[in-house]
Write a structure and sequence with these properties.
Blueprint lengths: L9 H7 L11 H40 L7 H4 L2 H9 L9 H4 L6 H19 L4 H35 L5 H11 L1 H6 L5 H15 L21 H18 L4 H14 L10 H30 L5 H11 L13 H11 L3 H10 L7 H20 L14 H16 E3 L12 E3 L2 H20 L4 H16 L23 E3 L9 H4 L6 E3 L13 H4 L4 H5 L10 H8 L2 E2 L10 E2 L6 E5 L3 H8 L18 E6 L14 E5 L7 H15 L1
Parallel strand pairs: 3-4, 3-7
Antiparallel strand pairs: 1-2, 5-6, 7-9, 8-9
Amino acid sequence: MNSKPAPEGLPGRHEAGFVGEPPRPKSKREEKHETTRRYEVHAQVAAAQVGDILRVLLLFRFINALCVRTFFQPDEYFQALEPAWRVAFGADSGAWLTWEWQHQLRSSLHPAIFGLAYKAAESLMSSLSLFPPFKALMLVALPRTLQAVFAALADFYTWKLAMDIYGRQSNAPWAALWMTVLNPWQWYCSTRTFSNSLETTLTIAALCYWPWEVLIDTKASRSQPLQQEGRLSSLRISLVLAAVAVLLRPTNLLIWLVVSGLSLIRLTPLGNSPLQTSTIVILLRESIICGATVLAVSLISDRLYFGFWTFPPYKWFYFNISQSLAVFYGRMPWHYYVSQGVPLLTTTFLPFTIVGLYKATSSTNTLQSRILKTLNLSVLTMITILSFISHKEVRFIYPLLPMLHILSAPYFTAFFTQPASSSAAPSSDGPVSLRRKLTLANLISLNILLAGYLSLFHQPAPLSVLSFLRTEFERIHPDALDIDVPASPQGGKGEKELFALFLTPCHSTPWRSHLVYPALRARALTCEPPLHIARGTKERETYLDEADRFYLKDADGMYGVRFLGEEMWPLAAGNESTGTAKRRVGEVPRYIVGFEGIEPVLRAFFEHGNDGKEAPGKEMGVTLTRVWSAWNGAFNEDWRRRGRLVVWDTGLYQGSRGEENREEEGRVVDEL
């Protein structure tokens, strides 16, 4: 009987299943059992690897969330955390709801997530009788900690989809994972509470669960992909996630029109395939069922939030199309997403992105090629259609970033690696070694520098100033630190005063999500759009919101003084019969917050006036004292936000930092 020779060495002989004796022939039953056992072991190893990857990504994004200490755009707070605060603590909690929420343009699903987290955390901390300042600190940190989970899932599903497309033996999925981890935009934005950030996670997860088998050439395979075990459940998960993404951001529909459209075409003679009626029926049936279910949940959520039945996606389309309100927030050139959007998203990975997009346009009969072509067409379609809209932001195409990483991954791998064995083919998916190490090191270093500067040093003051104000309120009014108790109409001890006035461009800082305490009253310049003015009229074109009016310069290049004297603290008519002189009305705050460029404006109004004229607000008795200031980055494209962010004490209240500073200065003078 012929038998195979014993393997060389102890490890090889153990692997063969014997030690010290030749192998005996195995029965078919034993071979089947061994095959099953090896499959089970491989599945366990793969599952352990997946779990390890997810845990590492969760830890990484949690650190990411703690490191991001800067302000980016107000939507992070006013389109998510302010309505969430209202969900958790009620209408009298001091949350600032912008006009979009007053006109039901936004779905309540996104803020409801953070609102429930707020409420659960506050209830838990209250039951433990934790110190109010500690509770406030935890509530400030909570949203980004929760968002870190969504960010990690976006990274995870990017890697997982790349693994499904390129195969477990390929190096491209690992390249896609490294690209999403090292991308400066991901570090800067993924843990921020934008609806676009959650939309990105929902989109890539839905694409990962999508049954891409429907793109298989049905002439070569007669199997029904949606009738295979587990694929129908996967389809339902994908459709539910996609429906939520569309409700959060209606423009996400563009991606799913391409994905579902190409899938349906592939199942018809138009896609060079016999008509797959059963698969088409399943796709349409599940789309209707899952879409209707998510829509019902959304309608109920909006009914509970707004107090009446409404449909935010319709409102969103109506106001943006009929009212043309997007233009009110800025116009960008048609090529913005090509010339700035995609480069900002991909940064140093842009060359590989361009190659990936170009290569994906070529089509072969492989499933991998068809998936990549579908992703590529989704990217191009969304960029093209959004380019026709006047108002553009990089965040609007953020959901495309995971797809761009997947498309770029093979070319990133090919550029920086080579087969470890000289005999291996250049396209081998086996072990590789690095090449162009200096270029790779420079690329990684540049990404780290960009991420570090943007997350730590570019506009940190809008967040730190609120920590200062909240700490000051805790010091001055320690008996007014109830978080879940509405502000009293009569005014409690901390509510008798206007604690802070923000003379900054509209929405330059977060609001109640960082001020926390309902009794901490504050006021800021507003920027509501001209909903009350007809479209196309001269009044609409020349409309100036409150912040615009404050920063409107006169012929002498001066701004602000007239606004303060006419709108902020106007003169009240005196009584001639009693000889009462005119006086200024309006609340004067304990602290005024603004960028340092407005200091001459404030002093011209309160102290010395302009051109030898008496200061309009001199009789108000305000004596400005700087009590806090912070650096706000090396540059800012908005001249109104340049320089340090400063807090001035008005000198009208006891216990303020300015009073302490003046007493200290007085003691120094006495000693001299």
